[in-house]
Amino acid sequence: MAFTKKIKVLLLIISLPMLFSVQLSFSQSNFKGKVIDAQTGETIAGAKVQLKTYNRVTLTNDSGLFTISIPSLERVILEISMLGYNSITDTFIFSSSHEKTYKLTPSVEDIDAVVITANRMMQPIKNTTVLTQLVPAEQQLRMGNYNITSVLEREIAGLEKANFGYRPKLTYQGLGARYMLFLVDGERMAGEMDGDIDYYRLNMDNIDRIEILRGPASVIYGSNAISGVINLITRKPQSGFEAGSSLRYSKYNETNFNLYAGGARNKISYLSSITTNHTDGYDLTPNEPYSKNQEKYSNYAFNQRFDYNFSKQTSLTIKGNIFYNRIYDGIVDVRAVDHGYAGQSSLVKIEHKQNDSAQMVFSYAIDRFVNYNILINRNDNHSKTASDVLHTLRWMTDRVNSLGHWTGGSEFVYENLFSEKLSIPYVHMYTLIAFLQNDYRISKKISVVSGSRAIYYSTGKYSIVPALSIVLRFEPVILRTSYGQGFRSPTLKEMYYQFDHQGMFYLIGNRNLESERSNYVSTSVELRKNNFSFAANAYYNQLTDMIYHTLVAERTFQYININKARVMGVDWISKWKPLRDLIFSLNMSYINSINLSTDSAMYNVAPFSAAGSITYNLKIKKNWQITLDLSDRYTAARTYEPVGEIIYHDPAFHYWKFTSMLRYKTLSFTLGIDNLFNNVMPYSLGNISPGRRMFIVLSYQIHKY
Q1: Residue 327 shares a structural domain with residue 460
Q2: What Cα–Cα distance (Å) separates residue 55 from each residue in 77, 80, 185, 313, 598?
Q3: Based on the domain organization, do 606 and 675 belong to the same domain?
Q4: What three-state secondary structure class fits 493?
Q5: C-alpha span between 291 and 293 (Å, rounded)
Q6: What 3 state SS string does 146-157 have?
Q7: I need a labelling partner for 568 at 20 to 30 A (CA). Which of 136, 249, 288, 703 fits?
């Protein structure tokens, strides 16, 4: 098949870096060190040691020792970090006689952890202008949390998932996914389907961490960043050579498998990974033969990353991804068609650091998403029904001077959409963008952050979006108050749709649609101590010109700027470590969302949700560790948007999960129980679990330093 040939060619091209590695050297010496726990004096294995000047990374071995190559007589910046500890930074002039011991202080949160999402440039999480939550991926994987939406449900109160057919749909801070921006390494994904992207494309295996930004970020990210931004940061090699594999298995042949290999040496690094996921699916309503709670599916993903440091100032990153998913939802006697989805993405990025206070980034990203009808009775022939291609060219600069910390840049975005359901089979649109943000330190304790984004669309329309924040730092307390405008530009689908539902009704687009607008105000307080952290965030969000399909003639609906909405709420995020190895986590969210056009509560929103967990780590001898984790997700009752004359309701429910993990050095074995108390809700959209299920996870890693 032509489709299979394309996949093979792409796999060959993108996997070439796996076939060889290049070693370039320069005058250098080895710097040796040791990392220990500041409270117990025990050595720490697996701590990340990063030479920030040259962007080199290594890990401590089982004895807490590390070796990293450093140019002699150079000023170097060394950062040491580890999950569960505060990061430390050491700046010094290196000579061959250097050898140091570093002490890390245990902490429930790392206040010095570096994040990118708040302004597209690296900064400690304590310095971010908006409340930002960090979720490391490694522990999630070892505990058997392979599904990205399940991880987000566990960690973010106020984010709810529902399942319509075989595709999950999310709401966040009282709004649908179309108002929440999903990014991978800061880049958008193509293929929006009724507001949601294809979450099956997001594999936890290839993720280093997840950064969650609450509130609008339209000045930095543009359209859709109204309720928040979720940025998935992919992994980079951590040692000279590394490889690993993991396997998760559960009932209904639910299987997740990952294999990766890579390494970093001198100026070059590469990382390759392959991921597969499969389930046979299950049906809790056998009397309804044409629908299942979980359809059978199989998907595959291949990821390749290549980094090269031309010098300590300039680096190159090349990334590629191939994805394919087949949903086995065809019924031969009724509809002999399965659904297939394929995606390909690539990124080329050049970073140039002029000095400690100035750097520039140039990048080009392309993301392509394709829908297929798979004809079962025609030798599984793939018939393309839709495709979406997104090109993004970006230039950014980051500078610090006496007038503040400036982040600015420009973007060119081009989107091309094909669909059988459009008035014109192929439609396209381009956007020109310029943005500028300044973080001005009035004093060590007070910062004022202001910015604006200007957008011009090829349709002739334009938008200007401002934002203003004030940050007060009274260590260990941080206060933030912010106002931001957000917007969501109409999609090509909303402008050009022309769908005939077998003569029952028609849904058509509208080329005169205006962008949706929001005004968002929030105030947050954050406290981070070694054994306790919490953050409370109160917000008010008002939206106008919301796009909705409205009856304009007999059996004819059209997208129109008609709705207004108001959402207000409070988020609570907390962790407490009463004992060295015991952690309590509790996140809660209260949401009040009103459709002002109908003066009624908005659909699909649970007014209250909470996510909590108790985690206990027990170290046995030197290399053995046991982790026990009990978690619960509570979702209040909610009502979903009517489908015709049918209205779906979900009662409130709890979803408990227990996990136990035994780890020996880099080998771990996990045994867990999903839906611990066997809460089965056959007609629920929010809880489609088939009941109590056991699962196992085997994971192994190799690191050579």
Answers
A1: yes
A2: 10, 13, 17, 10, 54
A3: yes
A4: helix
A5: 7
A6: CEHHHHHHHHCC
A7: 136
Domain with residue 40: its CATH number is 2.60.40.1120
Total count of residues recorded for the chain:
705
pLDDT value, residue 165: 59
Q: Strands, E, within 280-332: which ranges?
A: 296-309, 314-328
The answer to whether position 660 is within a domain reads yes
Q: How far is CA 508 from the centre of its chain?
A: 32
d(CA 147, CA 150): 5
According to the model, what pLDDT value does residue 98 have? 66
Is residue 101 located within the same domain as residue 197?
A: no
| Better pLDDT: 517 or 110 | 517
In the predicted structure, residue 25 carries a pLDDT above the cut 70:
no
Mean pLDDT of 201-206: 85
Q: Which residues, 6 or more positions from 226, have their beta carbon under 8 angstroms from its beta carbon?
A: 175, 179, 180, 216, 218, 486, 487, 488, 516, 518, 520, 541, 543
* Domain annotation covers residue 156: yes
178 and 276 part of one domain: yes
pLDDT tens-digit map of 646-695: 788 999 999 999 999 999 888 999 999 999 999 999 988 899 999 999 99
CATH number for the domain harbouring residue 248: 2.40.170.20
- Paired tokens of 668: 């771990």
Lowest mean per-residue pLDDT among 264-268, 448-452, 605-609: 264-268
Q: Across all residues in the chain, what is the average pLDDT?
A: 87
Q: Determine the average pLDDT of the residues in 455-475.
A: 91
Same domain? 80 vs 173: no
Residue 451's pLDDT band, with cuts at 50, 70 and 90, is: very high
Tell how far CA 352 is from the center of its chain: 26
The token duo for 291 is: 């629908």
Among 23-32, 445-454, 643-652, where is mean pLDDT lowest?
Answer: 23-32
> Do 558 and 489 belong to one domain?
yes
Is 22 buried (19+), middle (13-18) or exposed (0-12) by CB count in 10 A? exposed
- Inside any domain, residue 5: no
| More confidently predicted of 254 and 505 | 254
How far apart are alpha carbons 602 and 595 in whole angstroms? 6
User: Is residue 50, in this structure, part of any structural domain at all?
Assistant: yes
DSSP 206: G
Name every residue whose Cβ is closer than 8 Å to that of residue 475 and which is 6 or more positions away in sequence: none
Domain that holds residue 325: 149-164+168-704
Tokens 């008010």 locate to 540
206 in the same domain as 64 = no
Residues 284-295: what's their mean pLDDT?
82
Determine how many CB atoms are found less than 10 A away from the CB of residue 619: 15
- pLDDT category of residue 20 using cuts at 50, 70 and 90: very low
- What's the total number of domains in the chain? 2
Q: Which whole number is the average pLDDT over 574-601?
A: 92
Residues 270 and 405 in one domain: yes
The SS3 call for residue 3 is helix
Classified as helix, coil or strand, 306 is strand
SS3 for 160-204, per residue? EEEEECCEEEEEECCEEHHHEEEEECCECCCCCECCECCHHHCEH
